[in-house]
Amino acid sequence: MxxxxxxxxxxxxxxxALSTTRTGGVSVPPWHSFNLGDHVGDDPHAVxxxxxLLQRQLPAAxxxxxxxxxxRCVDAAAAxxxxxxxxxxxxxxxxxxxxxxxLTADCLPVLLCDERATVVAIAHAGWRGLAAGVIEATVGxxxxxxxxxxxxxxxAIGPQAFEVGGEVRETFVAHDPQAAQAFVAGxxxxxxxxxxxxARQRLDALGIHRIGGAVPGDTATHNFCTVRQExxxxxxxxxxxxxxxxxxxxxx
Length: 252
Hints:
23% helix, alpha+beta, 4-stranded antiparallel sheet, 6-stranded mixed sheet, 7 helices, single chain, CNF1/YfiH-like putative cysteine hydrolases
């Protein structure tokens, strides 16, 4: 049976969203079992079968992006009409029945909507995209004041599993000194990074204060840790060759 995570956030009626886990599909190891990524070496027929299972929960086929750890945010309705595999790391829509999606296996999916259910968006936020401003670009594309928006942070690498070099910390702290709160000194000059905390800081700076999902510093964050929760999530850092989960949002 396929398992889905339904975001726990105060989204208005008309906004629908979900994140997939690794269970309930047909892919064989090392992509077992509900792999939705078509670029990770899995059997294309298995990926197609898994995507067909997912689509039963959706009003239409999602816009699958060719994610490049950048900041480009596209209009999902317009992009669906033009091509597939468009290079971008975020999408938004004001059109009902259009599904925005990102694929992840450690990076952070950030889901967004406004309180009137007129626009939704989603961003793929690895540390590079997050540092470069993918959340800011996505919110900008929504063209709504931050106070009217809310966000949900999905499964990603947890704060006790995400070891980074000093240059990563320096990049974030140079942008905002408060980002230092998201880093804990590790061994050998490395740092443990809380990507959920960094995303919350970026959202807060945009005036978005209604944020669901993992809470910085809370041990419950481990429930959303893609590395530590091997039974539930794919993790590129843990396994190398592995599948991808999807996070999706749409207006009903």
